[in-house]
Amino acid sequence: METYSCGKQKNPMIILSIPFLDEKFVEKQFEKFRNQFDLIEFRLDFNENYKSFPVDLINPKTIITIKNYALRIEFEKKIDFLAELTKKFGCLVDLEIEKIDFSNPINLFVEIPGENLILSFHDFSLKTDFNKIENIVAKSNLIPSKFLKIAVNISIYSDLLEISRIIKKSEKPVIFAGMGKLGKISRILYNHLNAEATFVGLENHKTAAAQLTVAETERYNLKFIDKNTKIGGIVGGEQIEKSLGLKFYNEYFRKNNLNAVYIPFIVNKLEDFLNWVRNSKLDFFGFSVTMPHKKEIGKYFSQKQNNSPVNLYIPSANEFFNTDFIAFQKAIRFLKIKTSDKILIFGNGATAETALNALADFSSVFLSSENKERGKFLSQKYGRKFIPKDDLSVLTFDLTINCTPLGMNGEDFLKYTNLKFPAKIIDLPYGNEKTPLIRKCEEKKILFADGKMFWKWQAEIQLQKFVANIK
Predict the structure, then answer these.
(1) Which residues of 315-436 form beta strands (DSSP E)?
(2) Residue 190 · residue 176 · CB < 8 Å
(3) Which DSSP symbol is given to 190?
């Protein structure tokens, strides 16, 4: 059977999707963004009176979309309405491929030319059926259209391998709109998945789940991402979406004309993520690693890691580093801590263990934590004394190091631990606001190193490693 295509696009595209809430809203958004995006989609299904849309906004660089699941109109009537718009304005229109009668598709294209048509496939199932998508791509190859749009859930990293393989089989450019847990990542990397366009949305007015906002497109320099863009980012739990690195590294790349992007990789199963890194054949410059994977990641590659915490992974060289160790050393020098000072580390995770390593030459180091079993294990491992949290109220320290998230969400660290105010503080949590502990340090003029200072010290080392692998 003869196959049809309207040709492959040469350049990646970003499409802004605007919901038709009312006439004033779409006119304002169109005026604001008309010259900032390759195409603008108007979602008429956000308004029951979709025929009242201001047609003076329609031109060959606009897409008109009316989803049947949103407005239950007859498919034939929708075709008539959209066909009229393509004749008058030369715009693109979206039609669901599964509603097309493939026994006689030519009738459709008498009304809507292929050069004006986007064939779309949507599947909101939590588990994506890749065999079905492969069949959709095969059907799409049989009929003329400008684009094939695919919108499906991307829940695990192996899904990225599958969708990339299938998109490559399309004989026409694909607009990819990932949804689900990894939807945003898939949209940032749409070009690396063999797609040639993706959708972004307005802040507070997104038209689909996992849509990137205009602000996020700027943060990740989305307009400059192509198939040659090197990939890196931070690997961890959901807290990484607040990482300072997202702004810091991407701004650095843009200012220094480096073709790279730094992305938050939320990872539940580390093996799934690493399998994607190994098998995707993409160019990764490196990953910052944070909780809960600091101790786990090294075990997948080398026995030499000895279960020690790492926070930097360079895939090309299969190298691991702990830049937190260097940051602790800088913090200790900054605060002028003496080897005889009485020091308390509060916490029992990978960062607390790194602090114990960094303070190996200090004579009076103690550990305390909420988890007594884990705290005692770490203390014994490094030959230090464990102090139960309930006993802290009667003790004083020259330096206290908070290696927990306490304070990130407004918690009062000193009240929680019953500690007396120490002479100096290292407080690792950070957020948009200063932690209560740091505010108290400023009030009492106590010397401190906060989470942002600590992050900057370790990031300077990571940046050097990243840039060396990008150039």
Answers:
(1) 319-321, 342-346, 364-368, 385-386, 399-402, 424-427
(2) yes
(3) G
Residue 149 phi/psi, 5-degree rounding, is: -105, 130
Q: What is the DSSP letter of 242?
A: G
User: Tokens for 295?
Assistant: 């101790």
- The residues facing 39 across adjacent strands are 15
**Of the given ranges (141-145, 211-215, 441-445, 460-464), which has the lowest mean pLDDT?**
141-145
pLDDT in tens, 188-223: 999 999 999 999 999 999 999 899 999 999 999 999
pLDDT digits 0-9 by tens, 382-402: 999 999 999 999 999 999 999
Q: Which fold has domain 234-321?
A: Rossmann fold (3.40.50)
pLDDT (mean) for 455-459: 95
Q: Where in the chain is the domain with CATH 3.20.20.70?
A: 13-227
The residue type at 349? G
The DSSP symbol for 405 reads S
Structure tokens at 469: 């692998």
Q: What is the model's pTM? A: 0.88
Phi, psi (degrees; rounded to nearest 5) at 232: -155, -175
Residue 227: predicted pLDDT: 94
Which residues of the chain are in CATH 3.40.50.10860 domains? Answer: 234-321
The verdict on domain 13-227 having CATH code 3.20.20.70 is: yes
User: Which residues make up the CATH 3.40.50.720 domain(s) of the chain?
Assistant: 325-455
CA distances from 441 to 56, 108, 203, 210, 325 (A): 60, 71, 37, 40, 24
Q: Which CATH superfamily is domain 325-455 in?
A: NAD(P)-binding Rossmann-like Domain (3.40.50.720)
Q: What is the mean pLDDT of residues 402-408?
A: 93
